[in-house]
User: What shape does this take?
Amino acid sequence: MLFVCSQNKLRSPTAEQVFANYPGVETRSAGTNRDAETPLSQELVEWADVVFVMERQHRSKLQQRFRAHLKSKRIICLDIKDDYGFMDPALTEMLQAKVPRHLR
Assistant: This one.
């Protein structure tokens, strides 16, 4: 699973950490901004089987930049605004409520 937000500092690294020990799942995270901690790359997109984006704008940027590499990947928008700090309990609770139903 690849988690994507803007800067890869708060939301997506939190999600990566929350699901890091989830059975049968590998997680990574990236940001859509070019100055993100880990910028979104073709390699990460190709690696992922499912991509979770925090907001619709992230899905748009992903599709614009990596359309040719998305193929049949599932892209799921979690609709989580940039209102949370890293490992914020409200954010982890929201992630745990929204993500597992999309896992196979």
Summary: Helices lie at 11-18, 42-47, 56-70, 89-98.
